[in-house]
Amino acid sequence: MHFVDAKGILSSNNGMNLYRGCTHGCIYCDARSKCYQMNHDFEDIEVKQNAPQLLEQALRSKRKKCMIGTGAMCDPYLHHEKDLQLTGKCLEIIDRYEFGVAIQTKSDMILRDLDLLKSINQKAKCVVQMTLTTYDEDLCRILEPNVCTTKRRFEVLEIMREEGIPTVVWLTPILPFINDTEENINGILDYCIRAKVHGIICYGMGVTLREGDREYFYSALDRYFPGLHRRYHEKYGFAYEVSSDNHKELMTILGRRCKENGIIYDIDKCFAFLHEFPEKYEQLSLF
């Protein structure tokens, strides 16, 4: 872990990343890709120590309330967050200035900040996003070894539902020959339906692999799935988009079950929901 002073904290789309790197250890992580030009070891977390001050300055100067996003490139609940509490401090600022938040994580540490999330949702809008990839718990511990398993994330989604906080699930990635099965997809969808999630974001049944990410993924295949590295390389070569042979069938299941249960699965509609600040609060902020 090392500390830096960032020059800014909010992107043009009002997203923020408080850390760079990750300690969850997911074998497929795109954020390891060299194109992101990370100049330090991935597990040597870069901490933007002045993020709360920058966020407060940014929100104080904004003339119109909006949703603040976090978690797109780096999970806001890494292990260091337990002690540093950067995410918690930023949520306090968002709550104080009555902005909304769309927060994405794989960690049940988010429950630490449940009262803050409830307060934000009462004053404006809070959407909690959880990534679910693997219904089988033992397989999940291989693919995502240093974070809570899918079953626990489902429990978090249920708690959010009970507290009136809307949720969105990222169903990605689906790894060919590993978790691209009807059993896996139906298991995850069962969780989503029981938790009454608002939407599911799925870009297709597959995974993306780039330089940096690909090598780490293949080394994990060598450790846990002997022979699968060669199978991937023979079938996909150095392709960026690695699609499952079961893509069509699995997407059909996703669409059918979402329609039956009133879950949004159109990606544009899901993102519109994440970015949309409630109109009634926009009107109140003018007075």
Gist?
With 287 residues, the protein is an alpha/beta fold.
Provide key terms for this protein.
11 strands, 287 residues, 12 helices, six-stranded parallel sheet, globular
Question: What is the β-strand count?
Answer: 11
**Whole-number average pLDDT?**
96
Arrangement of strands in the largest sheet? 2-5-6-7-8-9
Approximately what portion of the residues adopt beta-strand conformation?
A: 5-15%
Q: For the terminal residues, how far apart are their CA atoms?
A: 44 Å
What structural category do the secondary elements indicate?
alpha/beta
User: What kind of sheet is the major sheet?
Assistant: 6 strands, parallel
Order of helices and strands: EEEEHEHHEHEHHEHEEHHEHHH
Uncertain spans: 282-287
Q: Categorize the overall geometry.
A: globular
Number of helices: 12
Rg over CA atoms, rounded to whole Å, is 19 Å
* Helix amount: 40-55%
What does this 3D model show about the protein?
The structure is a single chain. The protein is α/β, with parallel strands linked by helices. It contains twelve helices and eleven strands. The protein has helices at residues 51-61, 81-84, 86-96, 114-123, 137-143, 150-162, 182-195, 213-224, 228-236, 247-260, 267-275, 279-284; strands spanning 2-4, 15-16, 19-20, 46-48, 67-70, 100-105, 126-131, 167-170, 199-201, 206-208, 241-243. The strands form three sheets. The protein has a six-stranded parallel beta sheet, with helices on both faces. Strands 1-4-3 form a three-stranded mixed beta sheet, with no helix packed on it. β6, α4 (114-123) and β7 (126-131) form a beta-alpha-beta unit. α1 (51-61) runs parallel beside α3, α3 (86-96) packs parallel to α4 and α6 (150-162) packs parallel to α7 (182-195). Mean pLDDT is 96; it is low at 282-287.
